[in-house]
Amino acid sequence: METLHEIYTYLSDYLYARGPSLLLAVVVLLVGMFLIRRFAIFLERAILKRSVEASLASFLSSFSRFVLVTLLLITVASMLGIATTSFVAALGAVGLTIGLALQKSLSNFAGGMIILFFKPFKVGEYISVEGMEGIVEQIDILNTTLCTSSNQMLVMPNGTLANTRVINYSRKAEIRSCIVIGISYDADIDKARAIILDTLLDDSQVLTIPVPKIWVKSINNNTVYLSVYYWTAAAGCQEVESRLTVKIKRVLDNHKVAITLPRQ
Fold first, then answer.
1. Domain check: are 61 and 139 in the same one?
2. Structural domain of 31
3. Which of 4, 43, 107, 247 supports an S-S bond with 159, CB 3.0-4.6 Å?
4. How far apart are CA 257 and CA 11, in angstroms?
């Protein structure tokens, strides 16, 4: 009975001394949890309006809720007179340790958020990075998956993709391509340029606006190099370049314009 009386006396004294603080802490906790939940929902909807992947929006919403709830609990604990200095220090030490251990993963995570937010490329687009090319099949938080022209799966870390030069062949509907043709030093340059220009304008996959351009790139002892610039649809541009190269070679042969070969 004395023990129960002592407990009752302790609780009475505690409630008398801490009653207002306890009531305020409960109110802060309830209001804070409500506001955090509303903020997480608002944040997820705002992110989705930017056409960001749903998985990233859900993750950012959950992560922000976790951080805010942690800060709210620390605030409520301090209002109740609980020492939080050591807890905050321990939490910081744990966070630092995890950050060092997952340094590369965090770099890839940050790269994934940059890609999903700013969209330098999207699923279905054809890109080239560090000499490797392929169609983007999937963009995850840490990695991006490409399907190469040889039907191989290429997984690249997002940290690399976000911090290197990426060529996106699909973002523009039309691109400018260049073919370098070497003709004999003795050949008529104007004649060769006119023949090549007619060949380009006669091709249905070469755009007439902008007009194709043919410039002299360089001249050496036995060769005049012509740079043939033309615009075409981005889709299938490599096939068009290969076909035009063969076509130009045959037309020049028919008009007796010699294409030079390397001399030893």
1. no
2. 2-101
3. 107
4. 105
